[in-house]
Amino acid sequence: MGKYLLLFAMTMLAAAQVTADDESKSKNVIGPSNIYLYDGSNALQAGNAAEGVRLTSKGLEIAQGRREEKIGHANLCAGFLLLGQPKTALEHCNWVLERDPYHWRTYNNRAIVYLRLERFEEAEADIKKGQELNPRSEKLKEVKGMYLDEVQPVDEKITIDERRNEPRSPVREHE
């Protein structure tokens, strides 16, 4: 389970680049426009999944625009997986991809969700789609390695010679 948690790519809410309304871009906001999404993202990155999910959920209640909603659901996907709730995480990943089929990070995260649910064909499809969208992603390469470990585990070819541990028979001298 630990390997899944370390590779989660969470969507950051950039502090100085967020606009109040993504569609209009009429006014820039210095600092995060949705402090709950921002703090939730930071909590998730710090490994505090429960607090990250709580803050992100609160941020979604006041989200302004599709971009903030997408960021919130993408982070809830990550947070619920960190909490060991892959089915709930899947709902949030699907929410993002239904609205933005080009969000490669969510394909990465959903592939991890599918691995946790042992839905290997779907994990492979998401890895491929994510790599089509971002072929240089190191995170997707790592997730593909995790996928291959699950479906094509490497058999160790090491043989341990146990003869050293066997008791030696006493040597008889000729009489």
Summarize the structure.
The chain is mainly α. It has eight helices and no strands. It has one domain (2-153): Alpha Horseshoe (Serine Threonine Protein Phosphatase 5, Tetratricopeptide repeat), CATH 1.25.40.
Labels describing this entry:
175 residues, Serine Threonine Protein Phosphatase 5, Tetratricopeptide repeat, 8 helices
The fold-level CATH name is Serine Threonine Protein Phosphatase 5, Tetratricopeptide repeat
Q: What form results from the Cα inertia axes? A: elongated
CATH superfamily assignment? Tetratricopeptide repeat domain
| Name of the CATH architecture | Alpha Horseshoe
Strand content: under 5%
Q: What is the count of helical runs?
A: 8
Average predicted local confidence, pLDDT: 83
What's the structural blueprint in terms of helices and strands?
Layout lengths: L1 H5 L28 H11 L3 H13 L4 H17 L3 H14 L4 H13 L3 H14 L4 H14 L24
Description:
It is a single chain. By secondary structure, this protein is mostly helical. The protein has a single domain (about 1-155), classed as Alpha Horseshoe (Serine Threonine Protein Phosphatase 5, Tetratricopeptide repeat), CATH 1.25.40.10. It has eight helices and no strands. The protein starts with a helix and ends in a 24-residue tail after the last helix.
